[in-house]
Design a protein that fits this description.
The chain is an alpha/beta fold. It has two domains: 251 residues, Aldehyde Dehydrogenase, Chain A, domain 1 (3-Layer(aba) Sandwich), CATH 3.40.605; 187 residues, 3-Layer(aba) Sandwich (Aldehyde Dehydrogenase, Chain A, domain 2), CATH 3.40.309. It is built from 15 helices and 20 strands. The strands form five sheets. The chain has a seven-stranded mixed β-sheet, sandwiched between helices. α8 links the parallel β9 and β10. α2 packs antiparallel against α4 and α3 packs across α4. The radius of gyration is 22 Å and the shape is globular. The chain starts with 28 loop residues before the first strand and ends with a helix. Bound molecules: nicotinamide-adenine-dinucleotide. The site of nicotinamide-adenine-dinucleotide has 30 residues, from α7 and α8.
Length: 481
C-alpha cells in the first residue's frame, strides 16, 4: 500500500523494507491498570484503530468516574511509602524501567507506529530512545533532590493527561520526573493512542514497581476531565491543545492543585540570506514534516529573508518531492499517516481556508492510499500575517511561508503570534543568533537546527503555549513542594 511521492527527479526506487509486525502482541481487549493490576473498567469501551489502514487494533476500556476514583485512591495509598523510600532506591526502579524500554525498544517502536501512524524510523530513533533517556536522566536526580534548588518534598498524587502525537514520549516526560520526586501518578493517554501506555503498564509490572505508584486509565475527554477535577489529586500536568488547557485551568482554579500546561504552538523558523541553505532546507523539512507535522513545536511558519526567497523555495520544493510517504512500518518512509480522521478533517479545513484567503498552495504530487488518513506535504506561499494559516495551529504537514527584510522585522513577525513555544534561526553569524534568541518570545530557540530534544534541557512555552517547564532540572520544580 506504499504510496511514495512523485519519483520525478529520483534516480531509483527503493524496494519495500517493512519492519515485522510479528514482534508485537496486540490483545483483542485491554482493561485499566490500577494498583498494579489490569482490571475491568465500570464504563464502556472504545476501539483504537490503525490510522494507516483503519483496521481495528483493540477494544480499550473507557474509565468512568468510579474507575478514576479507584485509580486516585490506589495512587494515594502508595504515595507515602514511595516518598519515604530513599531516593537511591526509587532511582533503581527508574533505571530498571529505562533499561526495559531499551530492551523492548523494537516492540515498542512497532506498536507506536501501528497505533499512531508515525514512521518506524521516527518511533525507533526518536520516540523510544528519548523516552528511555528521560527515565535514565530523572533516575539520576532521585537521590539528589536536595541539590535541585526546589526542595525535596513531593506534592503527592499527580493526575496527568497527554496527547496522541508522541504517546510514549509524553508519558515519559510526565511519569519520570513525578516518580523521581516521590509522587505517584494516574495518567490518561489520548483516546487514539492508548496502546504503548498499556504496554508501559506491563513494563511497570516487569520492573516490580510497587502497586499504585503508576496507574493508567484509558478514555477520552470525559475521563480526563474526571481526573483533573478529582479532589484527591495534588497536581495536574496536562499536554494538549490550548482549548482544553483553558478548560482545565478553569476547572482547577480556586483549588490548591498545582498545574502545568504544555499547549499548542505556531513556531517561526527564520532563515537569513547568509545561512547554509541546503542545511536550512533539511531543518525546514524536519521542522514541519517530522511526525506529519503533529508536533507542538513544529516550525509551521517559515520566515525567509526576501532576497533568497526564490532560491530557497526551489530547493525546498525539490527536497519535498523526495519525501517518501506511506506505510508507517516501512523503514524508508519519511511521512506516515495522519493520526485520526478528525485531525485529517481539521488539516483539510484549515488548508481550504488558506486557499480561500488567497494564499497559493503547492503540494507534493503523490498517490495517496485509499484506506487510512493521509495528507501530502504541503506549503503555502503568498501568506500574510493575518491569514488563519499563519496564526492557527494546523498540527499537520502544512507549512506557511512568509518573507522579511531585516532582523527586526523577522523578530516582529515571529513574535506576532498568540503562541510562544519554539523558534528556529538559520544564519552563520553567532552574534545574530544571540541577539535574535534574546528577542524571540519562545520557550525554546534552536539555532541552525530544529526539533532537537534532550531530557537535560527544559521545554515549555509562553503566552497561549502554556506554563511550567518539563525536562531538565527545571522539570523537577513542577513535582516538588
Ligand atoms: P487535546 O487537547 O484534544 O487532547 C489532549 C488530551 O486531553 C487527550 O488525552 C484528551 O483525551 C484529553 N482531554 C480532552 N478534553 C479534556 C477535558 N475537558 N479535560 C481533561 N482532559 C481532556 O489535544 P490533542 O489533539 O490530543 O493534541 C494536540 C495538541 O497537543 C496540540 O495543540 C499540540 O500543540 C499539543 N501538544 C503540546 C505539547 C507541548 O509540550 N507543548 C506537546 C505535544 C502536543
Amino acid at each position: 500500500m506504499v504510496s511514495t511521492s512523485s519519483t520525478t527527479g529520483r534516480g531509483f526506487e527503493y524496494a519495500p523494507a517493512p519492519e515485522s509486525r510479528a514482534i508485537v502482541d496486540i490483545k483483542p481487549s485491554y482493561g485499566l491498570f490500577i494498583d498494579g493490576d489490569f482490571v475491568d473498567g465500570h464504563g464502556s469501551s472504545f476501539k483504537t484503530i490503525s490510522p494507516a489502514t483503519e483496521e481495528v487494533l483493540a477494544e480499550v476500556a473507557e474509565a468512568d468516574d468510579a474507575d478514576v476514583d479507584a485509580a486516585v485512591k490506589a495512587a494515594r495509598k502508595a504515595q507515602k511509602a514511595w516518598a519515604r523510600m530513599p531516593g537511591s532506591e526509587r532511582a533503581k526502579y527508574l533505571y530498571r524501567i529505562a533499561r526495559i524500554i531499551q530492551e523492548r525498544s523494537r516492540e515498542i517502536a512497532v506498536l507506536e507506529s501501528i497505533d499512531n501512524g508515525k514512521p518506524i524510523k521516527e518511533s525507533r530513533d526518536v520516540d523510544v530512545p528519548i523516552a528511555a533517556a528521560h527515565f535514565f536522566y530523572y533516575a539520576g536526580w532521585a537521590d539528589k533532590l536536595e541539590y535541585s534548588g526546589f526542595g525535596s518534598t513531593p506534592l503527592g498524587v499527580a493526575g496527568q493527561v497527554i496527547p496522541w502525537n508522541f504517546p510514549l514520549l509524553m508519558l515519559a516526560w510526565k511519569i519520570a520526573p513525578a516518580l523521581a520526586c516521590g509522587n505517584t501518578v494516574v495518567l490518561k493517554p489520548a483516546e487514539t493512542t492508548p496502546l504503548t501506555a498499556l504496554l508501559f503498564a506491563e513494563i511497570c509490572q516487569q520492573a516490580d514497581l510497587p502497586p499504585g505508584v503508576v496507574n493508567l486509565i484509558t478514555g477520552a475527554g470525559g475521563t480526563g476531565s474526571a481526573l483533573v477535577s478529582h479532589p484527591g489529586i495534588d497536581k495536574v500536568a496536562f499536554t494538549g491543545s490550548t482549548d482544553v488547557g483553558r478548560i482545565i485551568a478553569k476547572a482547577v482554579a480556586g483549588t490548591d492543585k498545582r498545574v502545568t500546561l504544555e499547549l499548542g504552538g505556531k513556531a517561526a523558523n527564520i532563515v537569513f540570506d547568509d545561512a547554509a541553505l541546503d542545511q536550512a532546507v533539511e531543518g525546514i523539512v524536519n521542522g514541519i514534516f517530522f511526525n506529519q507535522g503533529h508536533v507542538c513545536c513544529a516550525g509551521s511558519r517559515l520566515l525567509v529573508q526576501e532576497n533568497i526567497f526564490e532560491d530557497l523555495l526551489e530547493r525546498l520544493k525539490r527536497r519535498m518531492s523526495t519525501l517518501r510517504m506511506g506505510d508507517p512500518l516501512d523503514k524508508n518512509t519519511d511521512v506516515g499517516a495522519i493520526n485520526s480522521g478528525e485531525q485529517l478533517m481539521r488539516i483539510r479545513e484549515l488548508s481550504e481556508i488558506g486557499d480561500a484567503e488567497g494564499a497559493e498552495r503547492w503540494e507534493v504530487a503523490c498517490d495517496l492510499p485509499t484506506k487510512g488518513f493521509w495528507f501530502p506535504p504541503t506549503l503555502f506561499t503568498g501568506v500574510s500575517q493575518a491569514h488563519r494559516i499563519a496564526r492557527e495551529e494546523i498540527f499537520g504537514p502544512v507549512l506557511s511561508v512568509l518573507t522579511f527584510r531585516t532582523p527586526s522585522e523577522a523578530v516582529a513577525k515571529a513574535n506576532n503570534s498568540p503562541f510562544g513555544l519554539s523558534a528556529g534561526i538559520w544564519t552563520e553569524k553567532g552574534s545574530r543568533i544571540l541577539q535574535m534568541a534574546s528577542e524571540l518570545r519562545a520557550g525554546v530557540v534552536w539555532a541552525n537546527t530544529f526539533n532537537k530534544f534532550d531530557p537535560t534541557s527544559p521545554f515549555g512555552g509562553y503566552k497561549e503555549s502554556g506554563y511550567g517547564r518539563e525536562g531538565g532540572r527545571h522539570g523537577l520544580e513542577a513535582y516538588l513542594r
